[in-house]
Amino acid sequence: MNNCTKIKVGVLGATGTVGQRFIQLLENHQHFKVAVLGASANSKDKIYKDAVHWLLATPIPSDIANMKVHACDDIEAFNDCLIIFSALDASVATNLEKTFRIKGKAVFSNAKSHRYDSDVPIVVSSVNSDHIRCVQDQKKMYQGGFIVTNPNCSTTGVVVALKPIVATFGIKEVIVFTMQSVSGAGYPGVPSLDILGNVIPYIGEEEEKIEIETKKILGELSSSDGEQPSSSLKFNDHPMFVSAHTNRVPVSEGHTICLSIKLGREATVEEVSNVLKGYHKLTPPENCKLLISEPPLHVIDYPQTPNRPQPKLDLERGRGLTVTVGRIRGGSYQGGGSFDIRLTLLVHNTVLGAAGSSIQNAETCFKFGYIQ
Amino acid sequence: MNNCTKIKVGVLGATGTVGQRFIQLLENHQHFKVAVLGASANSKDKIYKDAVHWLLATPIPSDIANMKVHACDDIEAFNDCLIIFSALDASVATNLEKTFRIKGKAVFSNAKSHRYDSDVPIVVSSVNSDHIRCVQDQKKMYQGGFIVTNPNCSTTGVVVALKPIVATFGIKEVIVFTMQSVSGAGYPGVPSLDILGNVIPYIGEEEEKIEIETKKILGELSSSDGEQPSSSLKFNDHPMFVSAHTNRVPVSEGHTICLSIKLGREATVEEVSNVLKGYHKLTPPENCKLLISEPPLHVIDYPQTPNRPQPKLDLERGRGLTVTVGRIRGGSYQGGGSFDIRLTLLVHNTVLGAAGSSIQNAETCFKFGYIQ
Amino acid sequence: MNNCTKIKVGVLGATGTVGQRFIQLLENHQHFKVAVLGASANSKDKIYKDAVHWLLATPIPSDIANMKVHACDDIEAFNDCLIIFSALDASVATNLEKTFRIKGKAVFSNAKSHRYDSDVPIVVSSVNSDHIRCVQDQKKMYQGGFIVTNPNCSTTGVVVALKPIVATFGIKEVIVFTMQSVSGAGYPGVPSLDILGNVIPYIGEEEEKIEIETKKILGELSSSDGEQPSSSLKFNDHPMFVSAHTNRVPVSEGHTICLSIKLGREATVEEVSNVLKGYHKLTPPENCKLLISEPPLHVIDYPQTPNRPQPKLDLERGRGLTVTVGRIRGGSYQGGGSFDIRLTLLVHNTVLGAAGSSIQNAETCFKFGYIQ
Amino acid sequence: MNNCTKIKVGVLGATGTVGQRFIQLLENHQHFKVAVLGASANSKDKIYKDAVHWLLATPIPSDIANMKVHACDDIEAFNDCLIIFSALDASVATNLEKTFRIKGKAVFSNAKSHRYDSDVPIVVSSVNSDHIRCVQDQKKMYQGGFIVTNPNCSTTGVVVALKPIVATFGIKEVIVFTMQSVSGAGYPGVPSLDILGNVIPYIGEEEEKIEIETKKILGELSSSDGEQPSSSLKFNDHPMFVSAHTNRVPVSEGHTICLSIKLGREATVEEVSNVLKGYHKLTPPENCKLLISEPPLHVIDYPQTPNRPQPKLDLERGRGLTVTVGRIRGGSYQGGGSFDIRLTLLVHNTVLGAAGSSIQNAETCFKFGYIQ
Question: Which NCBIfam families match (chains A, B, C, D) (predicted)?
């Protein structure tokens, strides 16, 4: 597919940290081409390289550097785009994303605004891409447009690690304990005076998001009773209990997360390890093959040394699309207690945990034929 | 008490990070005077300021700087000391501490070597100073000598925060998640290449220590059946389940720890908060008044802002002898699950979590008349 | 002097990082009492503890925590204050400080706004407190009011270290290389994404400030020819050449600065070392005795170990009022080149480099009788 | 060239940080194949992946992971290698490198041991690859063997930035001020307790190395008078004065270095900028084309934004083989003083500053026909 026949996409919030990741990851994409950049009013009409405080170690793609930036609410400017990627703050995402949907656009959003809508899915490609079929209902309602969200960055890592476990053994309860990097807070984000040599044991609304989103993603999308005219599909949360402790640590990129898991049925540590070890070797399921142009080798990596995963050493596995797990062990050393399994995972919070999952979701929709 | 009548103490491992804290905290102590310094053979006969890589922001006390360093196994050198503080590595502590005990010394140790001995207590002054009475049995056995240990640094913070809760409501289970500073690993300790901008989700043996020590400290010291001639007192572990995840973060000093707690009986978040809020206002119990010359105002501080405690802001509360708690909330936002309470705590790992607790234990023994 | 008879002072910019230092350092001051707090309009009428994002490890002084905050331009609110300490941004300081001066106030400012005015001195107490006498000219012009500034934080450290050298040997040229902490940029200041594990080799206007201010402070204040009616005293810059490279490093507090110095006359490294070694032992000159209630022991410390000064170990010397120097050596190892001496210094940028010097200047004026 | 016909190389010190870089950079090299791994005696006979504490974000090359490690002094083990790359500590490098030379090997060394030998060059490929011709003299002396060193990591960056300037304008004097990352100190290297949130203003022998090596590299290699039978070529140091201040900062990788330069003849800032701007566009000179399989685009990059270069953003330019310069400006803002130009540069200390330059030197020798 040459540049002329690629699908044109717009990026909302293109100058922010997640917006920058969209632009970086979409460079040379097989099917999509960034055609319109949207940002806040004060970036309007600037060229991109002047409007952005570029924070990535790779340079701004040369075809993007000199593109003009539009205001995000200049809806007409995005007319030629079939796909809208949203890296907006929730405060403005709520209405803008709805506007683009009613204009018939396929909106893939990192914002939390519509995650909990009854007709909008929260999707991580390797976990619940079957939930994407609910966009058919949206398309009927909104003139062909729809919104697909991806979860909060921590939740993304959690659900990837839990997926093979819940599928094989079931899960009754999970305690999530995060050590999150500062890039998760955007830019300027966390002031250096707050975090250099420090830990901040609080991230606003983060714990609530993890608890809610994990259950929706790992839940079922089922036919409703058909009485509601506007929707024939319904999300049923997974009944597991989820509880989270979230913390900010002085790391630039990569969220490290510890889990304590109560399984749905008895299983040994070895059995659980084998399921996670085996998982990374699987061919990704049919519907998540299109992983940002070329698939990562593994959905999950499991380096079997006791002190892994680490952000410094494991962040770039699978170009940031792989979740690394480690330290799979029993619930306690002396036995007993509520939990069967402990493990640690690492997720690249701005790649798989943000822009990367949005793009994977667009790829899935493209493959399913939801975007024409 | 002037310098002449103070009790002479020896410090083993005086050049290490914990040894330095002993020397710093004992400067101008009301009852104790550092009289002999012990270190490894290659520091032998050097003067202290040349043997030590001093890492504290306060200067080496002037009366210590030019003292000669002895080899730790030069037992005779410590003849005049009634008290031995041990900041030794476990590898050498096991035998050396026993040797000093059999010489009739009161040994207060940070090493793990004897923590799990059936006749040695693990004591945090504000938590279980009643366990100290078991030294009477040791004194009979070892010609007046005895060993009192203090727990691993993380455990110290955990048991201080749990004490008022277990005393009021009981505790069935606790999950411990730590974010530990590099000073806990001594010097040279953690290489900077491993930890700058990174998290290491593994600390050797740390999780096991937390699980075992918490139960011993919060357990009971009771009369045994009297059949054993050598011991009339026996430690009964608290029956709670304890499970830990331990992590190293790029912080210099101060361990931040999240807890999920299942109570022994039903209680509201408010009731638990009130017990912790109230606790810090208590006069310290009779037997822990002698807190390094002058008592800290609070055993526990509870700043009621949502983003606390933080190492940067709360480490020095009570001169490092106070544990700061925060974020007391329910077990999950949506209800249900195994736990009733979540909270975060901060402990100064080299003050209260190491040398400080050893000194407080010596003060308690001094007050009880176990040291003459 | 009890609280009733202390001089009332107002603090402008009281919620910022330098404002917080003023409040911390003035707690229990012998002669001054913080009576009015000024901040920006959106803090107006809040109580201080709610308006401030307190960043210091010591708690907010209890008598300040519940004081009402006034808008800085509510000039009447400061009527009872003889002294105004200004921690304002230059953008608002320019006019506000003039307004307070014309109201007869003694204004001590950290802002750069008036540093280069021909009738305003830039003063570091131990370096050029004789320059303060120029306030007599201001007092005549402005109804008893005057402005005294202290220099940029890096310059403060530089002039303290250069003072004994220039006084003894003269200085022809100095090259200044800084490694500055993030607290110098205020709050929120430097985003953590920019500085974690990174160096930023640029600080806006900082190099220019160092070059200009060093020459003014080390210059002479002399009688002018008397033809200007408004002023009888005139600043003559020191003729030395000054050139600076300024850099931001991931350190919270404390600026580390390397100097290459060309002396005015030949001298050995030993002679220069002796002058700096000797300097710290001097009784501070008569007119800088009042160093924030009690004098620091040393204006300059010179720990003679090769790897000092370091922010972590030397920052708190003299309660942040002492400059630490180290590594005094020749201009190059092979000889030759433009410079005679290299050395490294450390200055506490928010204590001596900001609020501390302002307070010392107020103390000097108080002692000289310029404040009644 | 397939694997069978590639030149076999040995790596001494293969488990250290520089050794790891050799192995990483030589993976898939066009002409060289790592055939033998050498390390200290306690790694002997282990397989590589068990002997190494791998610190790079890319995995151990699969063909290396299971190779057996030899003791470095097991000379026979390296018999089949034409090339020896040395990442040894100077303490052992001195004799071992001589031994391999006398065995006829082409030794490319990061160690300082032989840098100052009168018949051994210090070479950075893009700067002074003409110095390599002196190996002909060594080959005559040592049965075909020779040693080529590359400079200290900081010096490497300095000479690359100075080369176009000295070639065009001449240089009389340069002041070097470094902010060096911890990877320069190897592993375990700098303890985290020493550097977290800190600056260490001293690196042993580093300043001397910069002063001496810069002058040798930028000097001339000329015919001597021919009277010495063992050598027909002689190094003449460049007569510029060099003076250095070296500092360690909490950065993992990448040395940031400020320079003050006195030119040999008058030139404007614009002229100097143009020479540096132009330089990076040049085709690398004929004799340094073989830059680790494929040349980097630029020897020097000059991003013209005021706050660059930065380790975080510019380290990976040219795969770590490009030096980034920035902030080219006059010697001072007010004019006057000894220096004409100030600038800042960044060098990847373990790629171009260590293993990368060694490999480029081997490539140059290979191209020149010195290795058969």
Answer: asd_EA, PRK08664.1
